[in-house]
Each structure stands twice: as C-alpha cells, then as structure tokens.
Amino acid sequence: MAHVPLSPIGRPRGAFLSDEDYRDNLAAMRAREKVLAERRAEVAAGWGEKYVARVHEKGKLTARERIERLADAGAGFLPLGTFVNYGEVFGGKLKSPGAGVITGFTRVAGRRVLVIANDNTVASGSWWPRTPEKIQRAQDVALRLNVPVIYLVDCSGLFLPEQSRTFSGARGAGHIFERNAQLSAAGVPQIAGVFGDCIAGGGYMPIISDRVIMTEQAYMVIAGAALIKGAKSQQITSLDIGGPEVHVHQSGCADVRVPDDEAALAWIRREVERLPAPACDYYRAGAEPAPPRFDPAELAGIVPVDHRVAYEVREVLARLVDASLFWELWPHIGREVVVGVGRVSGLYVGFACNDPGLVPDAERPGKKRPGGILYREGIAKLAQFARACDADGIPLVWLQDVSGFDIGAEAERLGLLGWGSSLIYANSTQRAPVFTVLLRRASGAGYYAMSGRPYDCVVQLSTPVSRLSVMEGRTLAIATYRTKLDEDFRIKTEDPEERARIEAGMKEVEARIESDMDPYVAARQLDTDEIVALGELRETLEGFVELAYQATGRRTIKNPRIWSLHDLAALAPARGEPWTCLARREKGRVRLAAPAVGVLRELAPVGAALAPGQVAGEFERLGVRCALVVPPGASGVVRERRVEVPTPLGYGDAFLELVPIGELADAGEEEHAGGGAAGELVLRAPQVGRFYHRPSPDRDPYVQAGDVLESGKTVGLIEVMKTFFQVHYGDPGTGVGLPARARVVAHLVADGDEVAQDQPLLALEAIEP
Description:
alpha/beta; single chain; seven-stranded mixed sheet; 5 domains; 2-enoyl-CoA Hydratase, Chain A, domain 1; 769 residues; nine-stranded mixed sheet; elongated
C-alpha cells in the first residue's frame, strides 16, 4: 500500500515531433520569450538610473539590491505580480512599474520566505492604484502556505494624485493592515525592516510584525514633517518625530536600531535563522530531488504558440516531474484529461491536465473527439482526483489548456451542468495547496472548473502564450452581429456600404478581444499572478512545491500508506493481462471471437489495420478489464463490426471481421485499405474535419508531389472544432498496408476542404526497399 507506483513517462523529442516542427515552434516561442525578458527588464529598471543614483546618494540600497543581499547565495527569486499596472499611465505621463512594490519568494538562511519590498526607485516607494491589492495578494499566499513574511519598508505613503483609487473600497490600503493581523493571528512570522520613509499607511504596516528594525535614516510617522508644519506651525523633521531614537527607545514601536541597510539585512538574516527548519527533507522520506530525464527547456518547442494546434500533454509532464516518473490514474476513463502523481524536488505532487489531442469518444465507440474540452467522464475524473488529493494533503498542480465544456443537446441530456457543478464544488472547498498554470487556453467555464484564479488557487501562473477569455474573438464577433449573418455566418446584405460597415465592426470586435486575451493584460490587473517562460516552469514549480511542504502542523499531509488515492485506484476497473482472441477463417476472411464469457467494452473501428499482437478491443470479465489482442497468424483490415459496444459476449461469439491484406475480395472491400480504386495507393483521413496542406496560409505545404514519406512524416493538418491535429504518415486510420516508404503523387483534396473519415487525401506510389 505504501508503494506509489511511479512509472516512466515521455519519449525523446524526436520520437513524437519532427525537427522541422520543433524548430518552427521554438522560433515562435523564442520571439514571445524575448518580449517577456525585455518587459521584465523594463519593470526592474523602475524609473531609471537617475532614481537609482538618488537612492545611492542617500547612502541607501535600492529595493532589489536589498533583496539580493538578504537572500542566500544562488537562491533565486520567485516573483509575484511583476506586471501589475504594466502599460498603464497615471496623470497623463507617469508609470508605476510593478505598482511600485516588489513581491516574491526567496531563500534566507535555508528557509523560503515571502519578501514585500517598496521600490524606492519609483516615487519613493509610494502606493499606487493596485499596490495595496498586490501586497494583499502576496500576504494571502503567505497565509495559505504558512510562509514567513519579510517587509522591506521604504514607503512615502499613498501616491496622493490617485488616492481615490487606492485608499478605500474592497481592495483599499487598509486591508494590508488587516492581513498583517490575520497573519499574526495564524502564527505566521513577520519581520519588518524600516529603511527610510514610513509615512501614514506605510507606518502602520511594520507595527504588527513580530520584529521591527530601523536604520538611522528610517522613520515611522502618522504624519510627516511637512504636514505637521502646515497643521501646527512646528519646525521639525520627520526623524525628530518618528526616528529610531523615538520608536526604539521611547515608544517601543521598534525593537532594534542599526546604522545602515547592510547591518539591517544581516540582523534580519539572523532572525530568520532562529525560525524552525524547513520540513521538506522530512516529507521527502529519503527521496532525493532529481531532474526530469527529458530537458524542461524543450517545452518551448513542444507547446505550439498557435493555440489551435494540439500537442501531447504527457510529454509536458515528462519534462516537469522528477526522473520523468509518474503514476497516472484511470488512463482509460475520461481520456481528454490526465491525472496522476509525480515528484517535484523529491516531494509528491498531483497533476490534473487537459490533453488537447484527439481522444476516444466514450459516447460513440470507435470515434474520436478533440481534447481540451471537458466531457462527462473527464469532469468526474477531475473532481474525484481533486477530492482525493485534498483528503491526502497532496499539493495539486492544474495544467490548463481548456476551451470549455462540451455543449449541445447531448451534453445537456448527459447532465454536464451537474457534473461541472460537482467539480466546481470540489475546487471551492480545497484545503491542500493548489497551483494553476495556464499553459495556453483558459476559456469560459472550463477556466473556472480547472481551478482558475476565482477558485482560490494559491498561485496562478501564465505563460507567454496564455489566452484568458470567455470566448474567442471570432466567436464573439459572430455573436455580436448574429442578426446580420446567415446560417453559414456570412453577411446577408448585398449593400456594399453596409457590408463594409459590418465587416469592419466584426474585425474591430475580434481585434479587441484578441488584445484583451494578452497575458500581460491579465497580469496588469492581477487576474493572473505571474508570467513564466515554459522553460522556467519546472524550476518555478520546484519553488512552490517546496513552499507547500516547508511548514509542519498546519494542514493534513498523509503518509502515502494511507492515501485515499490507493483506495480509488483499487476500486477502478482492474486491468488484467491481455487475452488472445479466437480466430476463425471463412472464405478468405478472418472472424475474431471472444475467448471467454464477458462484456465487450471497446472495439477497433472499421478500417483499422490489425496485426498479430495488436489490440482489437477491450474486454471485461469478473470486474477485470483487459485488452483483446489479435492471435498469431491473423491480420487484416476491419471490414465489419459484428456487434456494437458495450455488449455481453459468450465464448466463441464473433465480434470483428477482417479482410486479409492482399486478399481483398473486390474494390468495395478496398475502401478502407491503403489501396484505393483500381489498386491505387492512397493515404486516408483518420478523422472527420477540414484538411489543410500547410501549417499556415503563408507557409509551404507539408508535402508536395515527389516528396518521400516515411513513418512519422507530417503530411497535413485536420481541424476539428477549431483545434488542429497533425496527420502523419503511418498514423492509425491513415490506411492499411502502406509501405515503409512512399512517394507523393498528388493531393486528392483541395487545401481547406471538408473531409470524411477514410476519405483519400494523398495519392502515393510505393518505393521499393
């Protein structure tokens, strides 16, 4: 029971993604990451070198220099809220990079801590619109994780020209002090270093902290010297009013005075050393942190920038978990999502992920449907997994790439509203730490259901290609102008001027929504906590997982021996060893039959090529599920499904009829094989959809006449429900009996044409070995 059955996951990149596609994806992602790096540098510069020089002239360090000296060597920094207020202008000309405050996590004396530091290169550390909200958000994270908080205070109070947006309301500055009190009441250590200005609200922030230290340049006052001079006509300095002489030796509002920044930071480090040691090593239980077997940097070329192009989420997981080992639960149920447990930095973590690829359709056996959409089975799987992780105290990471819930009459009949509500309830009542990553799409109610920011995840991360929205821009444009469009969404009017007006309006709506989905817009208004490059994701998760396990005695953390996940795994349909089908030959055909009494649960589709040892279906007997495999000496193309699934079978009941390759009876029976009419060799559509020759309109086709095809070569894209899936030579469903190598003769459908399953796409000719 104590054993967690971690198994290898993932493949070398070249086994599932061509060098060409990888290079294209990587180049597009590198362009996005370049923008990310430039914008980070812009925020880090504050108001520029002129203001850095002013700080140094006063004998002080900048906020970022203080953090660097406070942190352990090589500790790094996990920021929160880097892009708050990014791109906004106040008073017609002023910007507030990072809202004038730096918040994030680093390691001090071996312990991870939250640092909240006023940026003294931006309006002397003033509080701008959203500054209080950013500080509160960081305090909330510390409260959830029981992480010590260090305040590096150098704050001149509210930026008064914008006081109406900062002072009052649900997210006003007063809530910072409320959070100070809540942290104290919860026993979360708070240490404040006061390095300079600490006026009004800035003065209240340190006082509730467990330790307060002041430098000789620091002062804490309700009102500064200028205000007192105006109100009481007194000639006095702020240091006289509330400097360390007053607050360390008279009022008792501070504990220690030191000469300068360096001495204050050294004192804070010594205080942190006195805190309990982190519990991470204890919860590792002897496991050593290990890097993934596959390089996390490859994620930048594996996840396409184009949100419509699918990828394999298990390959993402393989580049996030220790040693690329993972325990996947219920892989045969709700295949549009992947759930399971792995280690990150040696500590157990649950993962719940969308799989954007084509997956088997549980409602229509033998058919497929696009992942990235939440269907009934996947919703139930996510809800049950989330509840189990919560009960077991396992931190849970959600990897979102979701376009929403399934819709339509069938979805309503199946009760998706109810299933979705169950998942939302599970996410709304989580006690174990939850971290959400918006890999790409975060759309509609799917964003909520996958533990988006409104459902109180501890931290939500975006990537440079995240898209947070209710619906896509084109969809909203159609909805906005629906009365002007026909059933095919074409403009009805023939009047040139009105057509031009409608076209311009639709383009404007689409462009506006596309702009709003920019991750920097979400980060600017605190709808997401941070933007990270995909190659940084593993390291970022290491930091947050260690934060989740650092404290003891504050939440449930079960020994793996008594995980409820083991119980659920045991109750799931068990999988036994494969059973070999019976085979009967009749008139040159092969009929596969049941080797025992049981229930046939899944069945290979018509047109599938089956060879000895390959899976023809799934069989359940006495509550145990197993694969039915083709026996030695039998092979062919599925010509007929003699039963529909699920169905009971007796011993010897036939369920599939195969036409042996090379022994096709007539042209009518060739229609699902690699050969077409008159013996032509063709590659067929594996799925209903729209077929595209090229990756984008401005690019060359994947293949052209004369090109040589080998296994795995990309030949085109099929679009299903606005998601693109690559078609490769040799994929299941593309034809039976295709040679190892073939030459393209011609495309058989136009670029962008609708195609049916099994429709010929390419005419080929075999290349002799």
